[in-house]
Amino acid sequence: MNKLFLLLLVCLSGTSHALRLQILHGNDLHSYFEGTRDGKGGYARAKHLADRLREKAKEEGMRTLFLDGGDFGEGTSFFLADRGATSLELLDALGIDATVIGNHDYLLGTDTLTDQMARSGLKAHVLSANIDERTKAKLGGQIKDLVNFDIDGVRIGVLGLTTVELHYKYALKDSATVRNPLKLVEPLEKRAREEKVDFLIALTHLGVAADRAVVKKSTDLDLVVGGHSHTRLAEPVLEKNKSGRQIPIVQTGSHSMALGEFIVDINPETGGHELVSYTLHEITRDLPEDEEVARLVQKAREARDAFTGRPFDEVIGETTVDLSGYVNGKNPGVTSCWGSHLARMTREAAAADVGLHIANFEGELIPKGPIRYGDILDSFPHFRAYGDPGWEIVTVKMRGFYLKAILDVVSKKPGSFGMNLSGIEKVDGRYRIGGKKLNLFENYTLALPAEITLAIETTLPFTRRLIYKDRRKTNVFYWPAMEDYIRANSPLGCAEPR
To answer: Three-class SS string for the chain?
Structure first.
């Protein structure tokens, strides 16, 4: 037994136990139904593994609880299948008992999420205590703060907390709809005590750093099952609560690449709970697939193709460099050759002076070689509403003074901000746009994703008035613009974009 488990035994153990429970968990599935392109993950393999662990636990006299840490929606082209309802339907197919709402689950707004939950017939409990009551009402009243599972006479409480970061809340159109999760820890714990909960779990979509802060505000939490930061924890992270008790925090990474197995002895009489074992199981291509889930994934593949009206395997070009994006569940968030191409594409498609691309918007990395139509959607898996062919490109007017300020910040740490700009060059230490020296008092046309301006104008309207004006729609959308660009410039390389 390693030092971590010894420490947990000292801090959490009691003299006896009434229930041995297996808790399976995952997070940030992002509709990676087939897993990653390098053969990791996949819902059908995850289901096979979960069933195997559940059956083994049953043979040993244990019950199982299966939890999901949120962001089950946007992330791949599979989110198009049945307008997103399939992403929720597969939560039930996996056998998940409860999930928490993540920021990518509500990005299309409450009406869309409500529709997806209704059409999927979702049976898993959906949690989020810090989404306010007005928004919960818009979501059909299905969102719970806390749910209790009665397992062999022992009450397991699970509360849900959603990330409160400002740059995600714009999708709910009201900055007050997601409250500070830290302010709800004590009220939720009080409610759990009133409901005689024996073992209390926080199911969060906050990230490990915020999970630590939650534990520090806590008295009664016994476990945090997290998501959002895509952190792969081979062992639980320990954080002290207000009484000095060490509370484990677990997270599996993302994209269905791993499944966590947490086995605990729960003693409701003493409140002492003993961690028996923790294992992070890799979901690899050698695992068998569950036949029913594999059938649902095949159905989703057909529904996705039908929604777009064209085959995903149609080759539209070629690249001699990787199209940058997520690797092992993490987006490097740095400038790249592909980012330079996307910035140039944005500028040319909108006939603007400058084009902007941000690496954090990229989807999964696409290996060099032939580029298929479906690769476009997985490389940039974002749209504002079903039926849109990707995000729209908009233009704004930005004074040279503010543009230079941005360039100065970015140039101090080249590549680290993940911001590619096209149409700007630096010659002898001076910026030039369109071959001319940048004029601090001139207005330049900047092309960028409409989602950026929507986020700014919803959450920080004063910023818009300060740094840009004259936002204009172009009626140019990313997916067709990307296809046109790839066809015109194939094979893509890593030369400086024009």
So the answer is: CCHHHHHHHHHHCCCCCCEEEEEEEECCCCCCCCCCCCCCCCHHHHHHHHHHHHHHHHHCCCEEEEEECCCCCCCCHHHHHHHHHHHHHHHHHHCCCEEECCHHHCCCCHHHHHHHHHHHCCCCEEECCCECHHHHHHCCCCEECEEEEEECCEEEEEEEEECCCHHHHHHHCCCCCECCHHHHHHHHHHHHHHCCCCEEEEEEECCHHHHHHHHHCCCCCCEEECCCCCCECCCCEEEECCCCCEEEEECECCCCCEEEEEEEEECCCCCCEEEEEEEEEECCCCCCCCHHHHHHHHHHHHHHHHHHCCCCCCEEEEECCCECCEECCECCCCCCHHHHHHHHHHHHHHCCCEEEEEHHHCCECECCEEEEHHHHHHHCCCCCCCCCCCCEEEEEEEEHHHHHHHHHHHHHCCCCCCEEEECEEEECCEEEECCEECCCCCEEEEEEEHHHHHHHHHHCHHHHHHHCEEEEEEEEEHHHHHHHHHHHHCCECCCCCC
